[in-house]
Amino acid sequence: RMQVQRVVLNSRPGNNGAPVPENFRLEDTTLAADLSDGEVLVRTLYLSVDPYMRCRMNEDTGADYLTPWQLSKCLDGGGVGVVESSHCSSYAVGDVVTSFNWPWQTHAVMKGSVLQKVNPQLVDGHLSYFLGAVGMTGLTALLGVRERGHVTKGANHTMVVSGAAGACGSIAGQIGKMDGCVRVVGICGSDEKCRALVEDLDFSAAINYRQEDVPARLKECCPDGVDVYFDNVGGVTSDTVISQMNSGSHVILCGQISQYNKDVPYPPPLTVETQEVLQRKNITRERFVVLNHMSKADAALCELSQCVKSGQIKVLETVVNGIGNMGEAFCSMMKGGNIGKQVIKISE
Ligand code: NDP
């Protein structure tokens, strides 16, 4: 038997309400370390916290592909770790593996069938990137832009990204530039984030929505209007961006985090004014769900890996240490405490 620590759901924040660290509880428990056929023992290296988890904190997630987290049960989400012993022919000791349903536990016994083996060379040994730039968030950014953005080289396109300094947003803007947008403008929640976007990631401009006059600054930064909008946040920010979009332009409906602590369906209803703008200007706004595009994942991950290695895509991360800080890190990310991908380092 092995001593391990895990994080369980202590309480729900309610459909209306911000999550707090007290919604999570750290526990000591033991793991029966004898493996059945097909099982592997893994040591957790990094865990991911993501906005969709807010839905899993509700009794009803509102999405058929998401199951609710259960009170007093171990939580789960994206994770990466290393195989310590194996009764599954596909895995050997030392293999690096990931899963979308990794338990929030320092070690775990998992079925080999729920794991994917990954090659550390793809990320030059930065294993946390498998949860971000060379994982789900990178895929969301790349495939979102490619499947919904209609970015055309030589067409002088302007892209706006909301939630621009976050995990998806920071990659999406760089993909937009790479694919030929002449201008990429980010909207985010602090001056430090604005500086990182412009100075480190080569965004054309950045707007702090908490401090600045967004409509006026957008006009200034996007003199030819907006052709592509990668929307991570929804709400007032998106109403403003959409009001400045060109005819025949495209919204990539990636997420609406400004509404996740409210009891509204997904996607949340638009204002009458915004609906009218979309219709009058013939703007597309189709929902994008990365899970529906996984047939393109292998090729896309290869491309992301190459871009990260070559430095064409720069990766920003906010890393917190220790399984005891999972709840804190999740709540911080939901309030904008992260620059780039929020990950938690569980062991060396
Ligand atoms: P981020 O790294 O972007 O973290 C969340 C960020 O949201 C915070 O840093 C904060 O930045 C911003 N934010 C929080 N509250 C608000 C608010 N009220 N108004 C504006 N911004 C806010 O997370 P991810 O990159 O993982 O996710 C970004 C979006 O992409 C989410 O909406 C998520 O649901 C969506 N997503 C969609 C997927 C899909 O398949 N469609 C897959 C993965 C993610 P700031 O300081 O700027 O406020």
From TrEMBL:
GO terms for cellular component: cytoplasm
GO biological process terms held by the UniProt record: prostaglandin metabolic process
Record GO terms (molecular function): 15-oxoprostaglandin 13-reductase [NAD(P)+] activity
Stored Pfam families: ADH_N_2 (PF16884), ADH_zinc_N (PF00107)
Known EC number: 1.3.1.48
Compartments reported by the entry: Cytoplasm
Domain of life where this protein originates: Eukaryota
Described purpose of this protein according to its UniProt entry: Functions as 15-oxo-prostaglandin 13-reductase and acts on 15-keto-PGE1, 15-keto-PGE2, 15-keto-PGE1-alpha and 15-keto-PGE2-alpha with highest activity towards 15-keto-PGE2. Overexpression represses transcriptional activity of PPARG and inhibits adipocyte differentiation.
Subunit structure: Monomer.
Protein name: Prostaglandin reductase 2
Organism of derivation: Echeneis naucrates
Organism taxonomic ancestry: Eukaryota, Metazoa, Chordata, Craniata, Vertebrata
